[in-house]
Amino acid sequence: MHSFGYRANALLTVAVTILALMCAIASLSDNFNSPTPSAQVQVLNINWFQKHQDGNDEISLTLNISANLQSLFTWNTKQVFVFLAAEYETPMNSLNQVSLWDGIIPAKEHAKFWIHTSNKYRFIDQGSNLRGKDFNLTLHWHVMPKTGKMFADKIVMSGYRLPQDYR
Ligand SMILES: *[C@@H]1O[C@H](CO)[C@@H](O)[C@H](O)[C@H]1NC(C)=O
Ligand SMILES: *[C@@H]1O[C@H](CO)[C@@H](O)[C@H](O)[C@H]1NC(C)=O
Predict the structure, then answer these.
(1) I need a surface site. Which of 36, 62, 67, 73 has the fewest CB within 10 A?
(2) Is the CB of 57 under 6 A from ligand 2?
(3) CB 84 within 8 A of CB 113
(4) Which residues line ligand 1 (CB under 6 A)?
(5) Which among 81, 79, 76, 78 has a CA at the least distance from the CA of 30?
(6) What Rg do the C-alpha atoms of the chain give, in angstroms?
(7) CATH class of 35-161
(8) TM segments (predicted)?
(9) Is there a contact between 154 and 138 (Cβ–Cβ < 8 Å)?
């Protein structure tokens, strides 16, 4: 006959083993979770478009940013930082990146959203390169986990063009 102590110990061993297994499965499922986020951005309006006295172009846009980033959230996600950048090429730089908007998504329930907004940060070029410029709008994100490494990715939306004339 087994003593009570022996049985308790055996139970504990089973419990610990199951717990370890569950942890392993959880972190594996986090690694193998392949997120399928989506985003669309419409430029609803060009509010104004000017050349400053120093020669730099600046434009103000009204945007409709919509995204579904719910699949980025797992049991291990603390929050997600997102920003929308205008990206374009100039003779000086192959990549100019101007952040237009950002936000912090604290939970999965808030990760499917649309926002109608003018650019939160100024869209200024280091020169006068914006007239008629083709550009991309890229939604970047950084996933901050509860444990483990942060990771980042993006969705590039191409095919946008700025107006030919100041207004
Ligand atoms: C913004 O986009 C969303 C999703 O595409 C759409 O449902 C909504 O009506 C749009 N809002 C405006 C103001 O265009
Ligand atoms: C814009 O997006 C297109 C298509 O993904 C890409 O080929 C191009 O290099 C991008 N332009 C910039 C300036 O990042």
Answers:
(1) 36
(2) no
(3) no
(4) 40, 44, 64, 66, 114, 116
(5) 76
(6) 24
(7) mainly beta
(8) none
(9) yes
Task: Supply 150's token pair.
Answer: 């942060």
What is the residue whose two structure tokens read 């951005």? 41
User: Rounded to the nearest whole angstrom, what is the distance from the C-alpha of residue 3 to the centroid of ligand 1?
Assistant: 68
**93 Cβ inside 6 Å of ligand 2:** no
Task: Tell me how far apart the alpha carbons of residues 56 and 51 are, in angstroms, rounded to a whole number.
Answer: 6
Is 80 exceeded by the pLDDT of residue 106?
yes
Distance 116 CA to ligand 1 centre (A): 8
* Token pair for 108: 């999965």
Q: What is the DSSP secondary structure assignment for residue 158, as one 8-state letter?
A: E
Helix, strand or coil, per DSSP, at residue 153: strand
State how far the Cα of 146 lies from the Cα of 51, in Å rounded to an integer: 45
For position 76, what pLDDT does the model report?
95
Task: Output b/e per residue, 4-32; b: 16+ Cβ within 10 A.
Answer: eeeeeeeeeeeeeeeeeeeeeeeeeeeee
Residue identified by tokens 């990206």 is: 87
Predicted TM-score (pTM) of the model is 0.83
For residue 123, the one-letter residue type is: F
Closest CA to 148 of 22, 30, 34, 33: 30
